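Worked example 3 (structure in, sequence out).
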């Protein structure tokens, strides 16, 4: 396009240069244009120009440069645009017959066929400016009526080309079908006006339509011209800002290319997009529709621009299966009284263009004698191209034709052309009726209707405001533009297979954003007669509880729905990210709501808490019962050998440990956290120090007994040697002598003592034991006091242990302190165990050392098992495990140490004897050997009974 315009401008400049440098001024016509159309200029005061794409394309011509080149003709008659041409003729006749509008002025017209081609549009423009059939650049050679304005020139590309030329001369142009946004620029196109809204409105309307139905995955197809490119570009910018993705974007070729068309069809078939937006004219779209029909493409919803939404060229037989349910934007529809009669009452012999229409409509050839335009280039081409089905006279009835030309049910672009003619007429009317002295020009002058400049008429067009006849619509230009209003049309299939254009909504670009688009969804019939709107998404909507995870290398509309992580939610569809719940809240199972976390602590009233309370109370009562039994039998031998103070301190500490476990229950408080830990530490310190005080005495007794046992063995060995010596001496004596020897001994053959006296004081007295208990307990008490003062335990909300719960627990305050305090208890336990273990062989009737040893083994087993159990549990069960450990260890000590004593006190009081309570060494052989041998009296004085006494103390 631009190349041709530049060539033409180059011709202008060359011609001007020739004129100025020539010695003798002369004019030479460089080319003759071949234009076809209508012309009526004789005896007319003002001429209105018109340009309509009556044909689809230029006819192919030979590229032979050996002869004079001729302007190409046109081919492919378009009944729809021919109706637009006749509408302009009808409007001019109405204006000339009107008594109110230009009553003293007859309008003439010059209408050319642009062939839907830029070169023809430029040819027509140059011819308009020249004022005669030949184009003489930069000169107006006509002497007739002035040319007022150009109505045209059809598509946006054509108007852009003509507007660039007309703007140089400030010549008005009123377009009826050029909606491209490029023409919005008044800097580039200062004299361009239009009665059709700019595509800026239509692109926005299409975007709102797509968003209205929630489509996020669409394909786009655009014509390869400014109308298609700029229209689809504006649409894409609008929808992509709103999150819609473009599945594919194809461009229709301006010149027929079967390969390109097949490639576009393959793209449509491969794409998963169910919505396809098409910004194109019907002429450019027609080849694609034919190919889609051949491939039987269905299950697509098409969004049509105003250029083809009511085109009969597209809505032909067979298209309902493909285009049924199409939605599109159409210009305002109108009824123009008298237009149909005008369309039906035309003379086929009036000019070559009408003759070609007649022959094409009836598929015949007009009789030559009746034809006055047989020599026309286009007419001859038409006759040669037609099938010889017979001759027609020109008296055939157009009413019987079912063609686009006679269909006046959808007068939209036709109405726009009608308004454009009336806009020029009203501007001329205002110019003609200007009052002298009140004019808009210098010194308030007016222009002369018979001799005015184009820029003078441009003033009146820009400031024009009038009501369109028959419809009452008010037209005014806002910087050359009209309001953006469209009817939303739905293609619905009739029973006979034809298409009905049903209005199902309206778009008003001047309304508030929320009220621009109004659609009756219930009135829409979608493709394949489905009443429900189709879905067109690359990925299904992510429901609340999930978020969109973008797929690498794919558009943002193609995503995976990823469930929100624990503790995060999304409460809306298609959320891009999940929301983190606050500290005291957690996500529900669906991950769409933050719910308060469960407050967890080991409560008094729950079954586990009640069970632990019962066990603790039972342990404390059992311990008190043991204390009562002991006090009742404190004067018995068994009661005497057990220091009452030490025993009662041990029982008291066990009561404390039993009861302190109850303090661990319930909602943690500052006092309960401090009390539970400190009471447990002090209780075990008192308990273990008391046991250590008892076991250290037993250990010392065992050591004394071990020394006595060693001495007894030595004495037995000496006695045995003496015996052997006597026997040897006796054997050497007189065999006949009467010998009678009696030997008495308390050492058996194995050399073990049978009886050991244990009279003597213990190295550690009860006062020493009590002092040891007090000192050990005070050390723990001091450590606990420092702990409570510096870093006391306190209640906390543990939100990290379990995500869905808030665990109310006690924080120890200082790990170092609590480790030191309980390490001290462990030290006491180890000492008590070691002392008892050393004294385990000390035999008395109760086996006191063994009982303490077993008790301490139970204590260690419980707490060693407690550590992994405690670390593997969470929440209130940690407290339960700790309480179980406390109770188990306390019950173990109580049972192992005091159960044998209670058994003697209550069941076997006959064993409660002092001689049975004395410690004795363990015998290797329970059978005592006594030997009494009669010997001579001389030996009786030499043998003395051997007695070994060892120190022993009461238990």
């Amino acid at each position: 396009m631009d190349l041709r315009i530049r060539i033409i401008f180059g011709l202008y400049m060359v011609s001007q240069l020739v004129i100025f440098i020539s010695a003798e001024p002369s004019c030479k016509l460089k080319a003759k244009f071949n234009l076809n159309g209508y012309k009526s200029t004789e005896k007319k005061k003002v001429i209105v120009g018109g340009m309509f794409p009556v044909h689809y394309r230029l006819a192919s011509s030979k590229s032979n440069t050996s002869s004079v080149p001729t302007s190409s003709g046109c081919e492919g008659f378009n009944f729809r645009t021919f109706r637009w041409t006749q509408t302009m003729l009808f409007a001019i006749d109405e204006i000339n017959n009107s008594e109110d509008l230009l009553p003293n002025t007859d309008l003439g017209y010059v209408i050319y066929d642009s062939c839907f081609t830029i070169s023809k549009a430029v040819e027509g423009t140059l011819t308009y400016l020249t004022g005669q059939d030949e184009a003489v650049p930069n000169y107006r050679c006509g002497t007739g009526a002035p040319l007022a304005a150009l109505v045209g020139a059809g598509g946006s590309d054509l108007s852009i080309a003509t507007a660039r030329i007309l703007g140089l001369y400030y010549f008005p142009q009123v377009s009826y079908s050029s909606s491209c946004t490029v023409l919005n620029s008044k800097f580039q196109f200062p004299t361009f006006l239009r009665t059709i809204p700019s595509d800026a409105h239509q692109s926005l309307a299409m975007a709102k339509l797509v968003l209205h139905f929630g489509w996020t995955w669409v394909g786009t197809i655009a014509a390869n011209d400014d109308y298609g490119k700029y229209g689809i570009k504006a649409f894409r910018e609008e929808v992509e800002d709103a999150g819609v993705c473009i599945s594919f974007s194809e461009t229709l070729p301006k010149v027929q290319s079967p390969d390109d068309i097949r490639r576009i069809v393959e793209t449509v078939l491969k794409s998963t997009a169910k919505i396809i937006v098409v910004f194109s004219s019907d002429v450019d779209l027609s080849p694609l529709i034919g190919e889609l029909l051949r491939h039987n493409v269905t299950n697509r919803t098409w969004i049509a621009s105003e250029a083809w939404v009511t085109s009969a060229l597209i809505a032909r037989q067979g298209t309902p299966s493909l285009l049924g349910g199409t939605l599109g934007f159409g210009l305002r529809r109108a009824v123009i009284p008298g237009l149909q009669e005008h369309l039906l009452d035309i003379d086929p012999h009036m000019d070559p263009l009408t003759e070609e229409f007649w022959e094409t409509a009836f598929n015949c050839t007009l009789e030559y004698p009746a034809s006055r335009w047989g020599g026309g280039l286009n007419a001859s081409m038409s006759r040669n191209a037609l099938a010889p089905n017979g001759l027609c006279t020109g008296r055939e009835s157009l009413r019987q034709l079912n063609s686009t030309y006679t269909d006046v049910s959808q007068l939209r672009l036709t109405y726009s052309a009608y308004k454009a003619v009336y806009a020029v007429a009203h501007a001329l009317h205002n110019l003609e009726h200007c009052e002298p002295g009140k004019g808009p020009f210098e010194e308030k002058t007016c222009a002369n209707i018979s001799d005015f400049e184009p820029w003078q008429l441009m003033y009146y067009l820009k400031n024009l405001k009038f009501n369109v006849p028959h419809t009452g619509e008010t037209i005014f230009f806002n910087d050359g533009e009209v309001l953006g209003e469209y009817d939303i049309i739905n293609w619905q299939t009739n029973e006979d297979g034809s298409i009905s254009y049903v209005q199902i909504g309206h778009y008003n670009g001047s309304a508030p954003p929320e009220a621009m688009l109004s659609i009756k969804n219930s009135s829409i019939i979608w493709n394949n007669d489905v009443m429900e709107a189709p879905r067109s998404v690359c990925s299904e909507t992510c429901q609340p509880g999930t978020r969109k995870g973008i797929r690498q290398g794919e558009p943002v509309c193609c995503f995976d729905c990823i469930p929100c992580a624990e503790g995060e939610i999304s409460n809306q569809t298609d959320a891009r990210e999940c929301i983190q719940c606050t500290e005291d809240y957690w996500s529900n199972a669906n991950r769409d709501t933050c719910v308060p976390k469960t407050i967890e602590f080991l409560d008094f009233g729950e079954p586990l808490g009640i069970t632990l309370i019962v066990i603790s109370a039972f342990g404390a009562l059992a311990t008190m019962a043991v204390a009562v039994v002991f006090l009742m039998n404190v004067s018995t031998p068994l009661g005497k050998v057990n220091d009452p103070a030490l025993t009662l301190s041990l029982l008291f500490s066990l009561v404390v440990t039993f009861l302190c476990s109850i303090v661990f229950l319930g909602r943690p408080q500052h006092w309960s956290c401090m009390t539970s830990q400190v009471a447990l530490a002090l209780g075990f310190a008192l308990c273990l120090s008391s046991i250590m005080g008892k076991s250290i005495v037993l250990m010392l007794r065992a050591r004394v007994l071990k020394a006595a046992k060693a001495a007894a063995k030595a004495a037995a060995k000496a006695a045995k040697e003496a015996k052997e010596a006597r026997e040897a001496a006796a054997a050497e004596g007189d065999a006949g002598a009467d010998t009678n020897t009696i030997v008495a001994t308390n050492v058996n053959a194995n050399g073990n003592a049978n009886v050991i006296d244990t009279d003597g004081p213990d190295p550690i007295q009860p006062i020493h034991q009590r002092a040891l208990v007090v000192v050990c307990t005070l050390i723990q008490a001091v450590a606990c006091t420092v702990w409570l003062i510096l870093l006391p335990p306190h209640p906390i909300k543990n939100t990290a242990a379990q995500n869905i719960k808030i665990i109310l627990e006690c924080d120890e305050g200082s790990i170092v302190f609590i480790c030191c305090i309980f390490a001290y208890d462990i030290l006491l336990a180890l000492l008590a165990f070691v002392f008892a273990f050393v004294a385990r062989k000390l035999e008395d009737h109760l086996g006191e050392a063994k009982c303490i040893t077993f008790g301490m083994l139970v204590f260690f087993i419980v707490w060693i098992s407690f550590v992994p159990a405690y670390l593997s549990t969470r929440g209130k069960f940690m407290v339960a495990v700790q309480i179980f450990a406390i109770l188990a260890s306390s019950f173990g000590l109580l049972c192992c140490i005091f159960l044998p004593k209670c058994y003697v006190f209550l069941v076997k009081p006959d064993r409660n004897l002092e001689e049975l309570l004395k410690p004795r060494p363990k015998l290797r052989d329970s059978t005592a050997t006594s030997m009494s041998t009669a010997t001579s009296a001389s030996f009786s004085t030499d043998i003395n009974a051997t007695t070994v006494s060892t120190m022993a103390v009461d238990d």
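Notes: The chain is about 40% helix and 15% strand. Confidence is low (pLDDT under 50) at residues 17-25, 373-388, 734-760, 921-955.
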